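Structure record:
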Amino acid sequence: MKNAESTVNAQYPNDSASASPIRQASDNCLAVGTRLADFEITGIVGEGGFGIVYLAFDHSLRRTVAIKEYMPGALAGRGRDQSVVVRSGRHQETFDTGLKSFINEARLLARFDHPALVKVYRFWEENKTGYMAMRYYEGETLKEVVRDQPELINEAWLKAMLKPMLEALETLYRIQILHRDISPDNIMIQKNGDAVLLDFGAARQIIGDMTHALTVILKPGYAPVEQYADDISMTQGPWTDIYALSAVVYFAILKKAPPTSVGRMIKDPIEMLIGEANSGYSLAFLAAID
């Protein structure tokens, strides 16, 4: 089973394609009014450690889109001519490998037309970096929904969310692709209630791998133990994503992430969901997640 970056973020509201435009902008952000190909930047949606997402208007097709720019802030910054400049020669290889992964991820996502996968319309290179134009999704991440509207969360709601997530993963697995970055802030709940699995963050994973920064690429509580291991016997597969998705449901029910998988290998302090059987959830559902 290949991972996303080997064949080919990270997350809203930091650097994925949804939520509402924000006013704050760092020096790394392109200015409102900047033209990129047929697109004009009209706002900034979010800025993360590995990318910036802009709200933009497509002058060719007359529609609003989100544009994600590859911008690993620890490795590069904005030059005077709007290009992205690598801070040090020793970071060039890592930057270039991350850029290749970013473009490959965009190419992968552009192949799909699944309602629960981010729709990429176009991708290209400009300003010595990469861009992808995506559908603009309005809504909140699952993390935000759990925080702001906990009364919505029940078994029926979670099952309705899980169905498109599992279908999207099945679509990926048919072509030997893993997501490897499922978490509450990487699932978008649109205003109509439909769930979307946000981008893979493949560039973030590649950069983390090359710099040996596991804290950069892994999300405690959601990453299974095989993602921490430097052992070829601990292979990753569909079970890697299923562990993460189950951890997401655990978070939605208990309002807290499960303990880290590596910690559980030593002493497992996890609070089993089965104890919530009298709180409106069926025993069968909780047992399946446990």
Q: What stands out?
A: The domain at 139-289 is CATH 1.10.510.10 (Transferase(Phosphotransferase); domain 1). DSSP finds ten helices and 13 strands in the chain.
